[in-house]
Amino acid sequence: MDALKTAINLSLRELDICFEFSWMDWSTTIIPSLIFSIGASRSSGSSPASLAPRYILLIFWNTSFIYFFNLLNQITGIVEDRVDKPHRPLPSGKVTLAGAKKRCMVVLLVWLLASIHSSVVPEMLCWTVTTGFLCLTAAGNHWFGKNTIGMTTGTWSLYSASWKIIAEDTEQSMRYAWTIAIWFAVAAHIQDLRDIAGDSANGRRTLPIVFGDRCSRWLITLIAMPLQILTLWLGRIAQIAPLLIGAAHAIIAWRVMQVGRGSKYDHKTYMVSYDRIVDWMTTDLDDSSTDLYLYILSFHRLRQFGTDRVIGGGMPFLHERFFWRWKMPMIPETVPHHDVFSSAIFSFNLPLLIRCYRVTCACRYFLQYTLQ
Question: What is the CATH number of the domain that holds 249?
Answer without folding.
Answer: 1.10.600
